[in-house]
Amino acid sequence: MKIPHVTLVLVTLALGLVSSALSGAEQPGWINAADNKIHAQKLVNEQMAKFKNIDIKFLGLHAVAPGEKEQKMIACTHDRINKPDSEDDYWVSQKHWTLVFQKLAEPEVIEVMIPLQDASGNVIGTACFIFKGFKTGDSEYPYYMRAVAMRNEMARATPSLAALFQPIQ
After folding, report:
1. Angle at the Cα of 102 (from 2 to 139), degrees rounded to 5?
2. Residue 80 backbone dihedrals phi, psi, to 5 degrees
3. CA-CA distances (angstroms) from residue 169 to 34, 37, 42, 142, 165?
4. Tens-binned pLDDT, residue by residue, of the chain (169 aa)
5. What are the structural domains of the chain?
6. pTM for the full predicted model
C-alpha cells in the first residue's frame, strides 16, 4: 500500500540500522522528564495518558531548540531530555523519512519514527513511538496509523517550532 506524501521504510529485522531508543543509562547533560517544563513535554504526557490503552511504551520528540544547531531529544517518557540524536532521528526530520521496524533485542515491540509537524504541516522535528505487543508476522500498518494519529493531534496543539519550547507551569 502506498501512503501519499510519505516515504515509508519497513525494516523488519533492523540489522543495526537504527539504534535503540531505550538503551543506555542516564548521561551527563540529560535531564529528567519530570523536570522538563515545556510545551513539548506536556504534549508527550497528554498523549501517554490518553493512549495508555493502546500499549504505547515510549514517546519521544526531537527538534532543534532556538539558538542551537543540533537536533536532540526535547521531550520524552524517559529521563533522556537533551540526548543527542542518532542518524535515524536526524534523517527522519531532514529527509521526511518514515521508519517502521521491529527491534532485534526486543521483538515484542515495534518502533515508528515519523516527521514531527506543527499545525501548518511544517516538519519541525522527529516523533518516535515504541509500541509493545507486536508479534512477528503482524502488520506494521496499524502501528504506523496510531503514530500518525498521535502526531497529528500534537501538531494541532503546536502552532510553531518555537511553541514546543514555551514554558509551562
Report:
1. 45
2. -135, 25
3. 12, 7, 10, 35, 13
4. 334 444 444 443 333 333 333 344 467 677 777 788 999 999 999 999 988 777 899 999 999 999 999 999 999 998 989 999 999 998 999 999 999 999 889 999 999 999 999 999 999 999 999 999 898 889 999 999 999 999 999 999 999 999 999 999 7
5. 7-14+30-164 (3.30.450.40)
6. 0.83
